[in-house]
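anyone seen this seq b4? input:
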Amino acid sequence: MEKPAVTEHPIHDLIRRRWSPRAFTPTPVEAEKLASLFEAARWAPSSFNGQPWHYIVATKDDHAAFERLLNCLRPQNVQWAQHAPVLIIAVAQLAMSPERGPNRHAFHDVGLANENLVLQAVALGLAAHQMAGFFPDKARATFNIPEGYEALTAIAVGYPGDPENMPEETKARELQPRERRPLSAFVFSDRWGQQWTTEGGEEE
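predicted toks r here
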């Protein structure tokens, strides 16, 4: 199932097709495709080339590791994410080095790496669903994440499945139309709240 964005202006097809499904098939993700996702993340831009991203990955090939990561998710996400063949936790390194101190762009940069990863997933015929709904402290304890690092996002990856096989409530969410705010709500010119226009002028 695909839900391409209905855009106001042309965008790249990978971005238009990227969305966050909850329905996955049990088909395993090939090792070379999974490596390709992390290679895409590897080449994301970052402040001072600090590369603060780290990933913990578990596949159903290792049932015990998969269950440990699944148990870090909040129950509402476990309901559907248990069917994905791959689960990932994205982790940010909070400082570039002891000398340079905190990296205030770390979360931003991990987000860039994650977006590379999910767009590469689309290019390979996969889907990725990022989740805020997990327990970071449980992830830290389960996977021995050291101090100075913070688990930010969980990600389910796999081949898209059929929402008809999902519980009715989840199925209804899966089939909802995609929506975004218009550009006028968040792109400003000259001062905050002043709408930017493609004609180069301003609108009150």
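The longest helix spans residues 106-123. The mean pLDDT is 93. kinda curious what u guys think
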